[in-house]
Amino acid sequence: LNVGIYSPFGGIALRRHLMEFIDRYPALRRRRGTEFRGYAIPLRNRAGLFERGPVMLLGDAAGLAESVFGEGIYFALKSAALAAQAEFARAGGARSMQYTQLVRHELLPELRAADLLAKGLFTFQEFAFRHAVCNDRINELFAGLLSGHTGYRECLRKTVRAAPMWVFQT
Description:
The protein has helices at residues 14-23, 26-29, 73-91, 98-123, 125-133, 136-147, 152-167; strands at residues 51-52, 55-56. It is mostly helical. Helix 4 (98-123) crosses helix 5 (125-133) and helix 4 (98-123) packs parallel to helix 7.
């Protein structure tokens, strides 16, 4: 059994929060051989360097995890597809650094939208829970994120468009 905790706010008291979560559920309390492992999820690539020479950084190595769910497999797979596309283009004589351009054009706008969504959701947690998490239409959008049918930019746009109505709801 693997139980994890994700926080966009850093690692303050994460083990305590994890133990509190585990202790709420009787099935999780009967644990044997508990191991604690913690890893930071790379949410961005501050250097903006995605390739150098024949080496291309993909997924977590490129800082391509998103900040709403802390997940990175979609962006790992997408960056691998972009790397293959760039490699085929290079084999055909295209110039170097095409992979970086593809990442900046196709992935980074989505990750920026995810950052904005996360800031709104995690900064105003009570409001977000009441009006976004408990909203069927927004839940469909977020389910679309997980299934790959909706992008973060579309989700952000529709969430922002719906948000003014929530202010006037009781």
